[in-house]
Fold this sequence. Notes:
The chain has 296 residues and is an all-alpha fold. Helix content is 70%, strand content 1%.
Amino acid sequence: MPFDFQRYLDARRALVERALRRCVPRGVSPRLRKAMAYSLLAGGKRLRPVLVVAAAEACGADPGSVLPTACAFEVLHTYSLIHDDLPALDDDDLRRGRPTCHKAFDEATAILAGDALQTLAFELVASNGAHPRVGAAAALEASLILARAAGMAGMAGGQMEDVLAEGRRVGLARLKAIHAGKTGALLTAALECGAVLARGGAARRRALAAAGAHLGLAFQVADDVLNVAGDPAKLGKSVGSDARKGKATYPALMGLERARAVAGRELAAALAALKPLGARGEALAHLARYVVERDR
């Protein structure tokens, strides 16, 4: 029987969605909690948590054993989106089809909601160590992987370089490095963390990390293309914003068709990296294709 990817994706997304609804704790500020939930539960592809789950499954683990860390990736991703949308960075009014957090609330609340989500992500990874099939050592290693991917050597550093490159002509090597940091690092970490928590072994972890590096670039190039040629109704956000802000993107550097070709080559490299996983990597291979072929 052929693999039913849509059924798989829907089931894993539903699993993640239910878990996310339990994530935001009650604290001293109902307004802060409301802002956190507003952005976290606004929908989206849920790609990063599904990658954690799929990588763990490829290493023989049960999805439920890694759900806290899977949710942590979406929580941290959401923090980055809230802060990206702020006037000081991308200054966007629309996210996932509705007003961005700072528009729905205010800038101070949005900043603090992002801060609280970032710290919540690491609380979730740490809590994963209580699962008997994971343990404290694996959770600690996953925390380290996520911290490096989100910090100055990964997402935050890539975003800084992205800001510095605005309005400037950058070469291919620098553009690739920017994309690898601001987007690729977190996708690679999602696959690595899935392997670590599932105790998948060094060979599987290397394969997944290699696939993640190519997948991260393919994802960002596809995102760049959609920002030029996508449908705003499907994307839930405006198109053409990269060009208006002078962002360093693959379409700006080499045109749409060559950018699409780069995404295709990176997809092929990701699929090749997943081959050692055999049938266990089938869901991940479908996810990789979905990343490049998506329309939102």
